[in-house]
Amino acid sequence: MGDGVRSALGVDVGTTHTKVALVDVERARTLAVAAAPTPGPDRLEAVVADLVGQVLAAAPRAVPAAVGIASMAETGVPVGPDDEPRGDWLRWDGHRAGTQSDELARRLGRDALFAATGVRASAKVPLATWAWLRDEHGAASPLHDGGRWAGAADLLALALTGELVTDHTLAGRTMAYRLGAPGALPDAFDADLLAEVGLVARNVPRVLWPGETLALRPGPLTDAGLRVGTPVTVAGHDHPVGAFGAGVRAPGDVADSVGTAEVVATVLAEDPDPAPVAAAGMSLVRTVRSDLPALVAGSSSAGGAVAAWLAELEPTDAAARDRLLARSSDVDDDLLALLADPSGFVVLPYVHGRQTPRPDPAATLRAVGDVPADPVAALRGVLLGATLQARWMLDVQSALAGAAPRRVLALGGPMVASPAWAALKAWCTPVPLDVVTDEQAVAAGAALLAAERAGLVAPAPPLATHRPPAPPRPPRADTLTERLTTFTHPTP
Q1: How far is Cα 156 from Cα 71, in angstroms, rounded to an integer?
Q2: Secondary structure of residue 234 in the 3-state scheme
Q3: What does pTM read for this prediction?
Q4: How many CB atoms lie within 10 A of CB 33?
Q5: Which residue, among 160, 174, 29, 71, has the nearest Cα to 442 in the 3D structure?
Q6: Which residues, 6 or more positions from 52, have their beta carbon under 8 angstroms from its beta carbon?
Q7: Which of 17, 251, 395, 481 has the CB geometry, 3.0–4.6 Å to 269, for a possible disulfide?
Q8: What's the CA angle centered on 153, arms 98 and 43, to 5 degrees?
Q9: Are 401 and 376 in contact (CB under 8 A)?
Q10: β-sheet bridge partners, residue 184
Q11: Measured in Å, how far apart are the chain's first and last C-alpha atoms?
Q12: Could you read off the pLDDT of 179-223 as tens digits, one per residue?
């Protein structure tokens, strides 16, 4: 490895796993990575410290000069005056606050809320969760009774620096932070929106300005090998951070970020009319640098849909599920057969309803057409379904943006682990698609953004990519149109 490697550490607190990556920031190359199941809030710092120890032991000559933290959005926990969590994560997929979300939308106006925040009122937004806490516990709510809200990344930053802070991409997912103009973001949560749920500024994190860093204090991470005073930043929402790492930074660039959930994000030159964006079930956000607007479309179950369908196909044997997943990942003639039949089998990938483009909370994970007897073909049906869902989101974003995408970069572990899934995406995407080769693009992107903010690189280089294999023989030109029609208007 050699002395003089300019490196940074990236942390990704994800829905399923927490990852730590040590990155050579001049070459945008991951030197070491470690992962563990995402723990409860009370164990987060200890688990991250263990992962940091593992990556530093694997690359002992690369001492990180910056730390960036990314995380799932809409997930957090109240902390008390002692900065200790008051309970377990209140997660984005908890579905607890639907009544409160509807009441906020009724009282404040659904369209007005979206125009102000860029976020659709739904059960997963923290503003609704905070109203739910008040409704469930009254003045004794763990948040309202002297508590403060800490998002997943914010909680780790609090442990590392002693300061409760967040960034605009995470604040922007709460529905309590106004959208602002690109490059001119609000410097705090909105007092009027907080008041709607009985909160004030002291109950929420301070919002870092883009580029701001804090200093690492002595604790488990310095015991693991980091230096006291190392710059620490909340890099932000996992999907936009991964997009930044991939190099999705200019108008027309598109990131397709695949994990448990999937997000398609298109960078724009200017804001579109908000009403059609809201009607499509999408969000309007600012990029991690805050300089440009972007459209975000989310599917709550991509890898999650694959896991759920795999469990239906092989409900008892975990080893058999692993073997089936590996067999389904090859690019072969059987994959072509799946593409070529316009009326054939596909799985609708909706474990928790469909958020976008045509929102439908009642949409379910189900097969359209006869499920093949071959389990590999049966599993590939859900890969195709997730791929067609992503293409549908991309097409609607292109229409809202008023322009075709310039390029698409796919990122996330599933894109690296399954060449078949990547090949399906390449076939379905209307412009050339490249795949980020780093499986931990979010953690690596957090490291690169932290390095840029700490002045280690200017600008941070993008991660390496590769062009996925094409199907052995291309299907008919009109097959994709037929396939999309079948997918977007399935039989009951």
Answers
A1: 10
A2: strand
A3: 0.92
A4: 21
A5: 71
A6: 9, 20, 34, 221, 224, 225, 226
A7: 251
A8: 95
A9: no
A10: 181
A11: 58
A12: 988 888 999 999 999 999 999 999 999 999 989 999 999 999 999
